[in-house]
Amino acid sequence: MLTRTFLPTHLLVSRCFSSVTSKTLVKVGDVFRETRVFSSEDVKAYAEVSHDCNPLHFDPESARKAGFENRLVHGMLVSSMFPRIISAHFPGAVYVSQSLHFRSPVYVGDEILGLVQATALRETKNKYIVKFSTKCFKNHKELVVLDGEATAILPTLEMLQPSSSE
Over 80: is that where the pLDDT of 15 sits? Predict the structure, then answer.
């Protein structure tokens, strides 16, 4: 039931493949991307699970009175793009940390580009600790809405899908 609720049917995957071989390993500098449009239904479903029913997410007038153009998408919902992008390329990845800086509001209906770039790799006990730079943009990569860093433990450096060049 939760899977059906939270897997968006309108997710747009946008990847440019740098090299396709039978076995592609992640390396520092590899970039992974995904595009998503957050809907009213996404905001409602997130609010039900998180119990964050702030009127800024549901009432356009409240949002305008607070200085925003329209209803806001929850910042943590936007940031959920990062573990989604990582796990799409590395099944079994364990997401262990995330720092976030909310730079600009995201409104219902905005198209958001999420980028995750490998910045450091370290092997430990047959697993790999990978640090990623994380960013979300809107307006065709003109405006950073969210950025930070994430760390994940990967069972292998082999990617399920190749990365794109940045």
Answer: no
